[in-house]
Amino acid sequence: MNSFTLNQSLAEVVSALPDSTRVLESFGLDYCCGGHRSLGDACSDAGIGSGVVLDALADIEPGPAPDWASMGPVELVDHIENTHHAYLHSELGRLDALAEKVAGVHGARHREVIEVETVYGELHADLEPHLIKEEHVLFPMIRALVTSSDAPSSHSGSVRNPISVMMLEHDRAGKLLELLSAMTNHYQAPEDGCASYRALYDGLARLESDTHLHIYKENNLLFPTVIALEEEGIAPQR
Question: H helices within 108-222, ranges in order?
Fold first, then answer.
């Protein structure tokens, strides 16, 4: 049985039990941007009985630890690019087309889907430049910091600067995803929704889940590690 306390942060829960992300998602508990908050505070703010959440966490049958849980910074950067960035690059345009189609066909009867198209468009417009900044600015800085023999002075500027920008943008993405979830009744398509309607909401649900895990890996694993390395001037194993 898994045992957690209400004083533990959401990030600590996920670090100890990566499979807990499914339970936290089901209760709407933000373990990515809000990973620093205690489990007790998160439950209280969400109006959820903490005992129910603790029971659900206790019932999880833990699987093997995912590969990313023990990756070094360079390996984790490569993993994030090859997994989460690749997913977003291929999925954002597909969801754009679906949102436009569904809004055009169903918008007269379901005005909310027009708003969904608008909010998703804002999210897409934010995410694309965010990915570019990570791939062309932050991630190269991290690779240089880790692999250079004189890491503290071999890259221009502190890694804290782009990280602070990325975290602000993560907060913005988290708020837009939260809004999309509320607008779609947690991605439940209406009974008269066509296959495209359901495909859109299923795609948005997966986008939310993947982006939450993506942000968790950066905010709570990658960023604290590389900030500490820069401060200490120590380059770890890749």
Answer: 112-133, 139-147, 151-154, 160-183, 195-216
